[in-house]
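**User:**
If convenient, please work through this fold.
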Amino acid sequence: MDEQALVKRAIAGDEQAFLCLIQNHEQTLYRIAFAYLRNEHDAVEAVQETTYRSLKKIHTLKEVAYFGTWLVRILLNICYDMREKRLRVDLQENVEMGDHSQDHQRFEMTEIIAKLPKAQQELIFLKYFHDLQNKEIAALHNIPEGTVKSRLHTALSKLKHYFMEKGEH
């Protein structure tokens, strides 16, 4: 049975069809989550949460052809939230631990990227931390490839500006 037929059955409430869909996308979801979170435990947790949220909200899916994109969007939102929570914890731990130059550099990079709007942070992550091609990012966001290029250019310009500001102090 093709994926679109399974999606239609899942939307109609067929849990076996939904389970089959999740199994088909599980490895992709895990790889993206692991690349984003850099932690096996967190990646598994993100995939589990994606499964739960997508099961609850499958009735809101408008285009059955974009089921995979819809799943990845849910996963990226969860990963983003998890990373934000972890950054807050890292910030508290860094304050308590004192000055460690390696942690400090990582924190500075994370801090500067965190100044970007959420959409630009995600773009930087997908392009430079997950090595996705512009074409793949465009498909994921359902936007033209040229838009990805211009948004990347804007994000990189802002990052350059932030780094230059940081260097002046």
Observations:
- The radius of gyration is 18 Å.
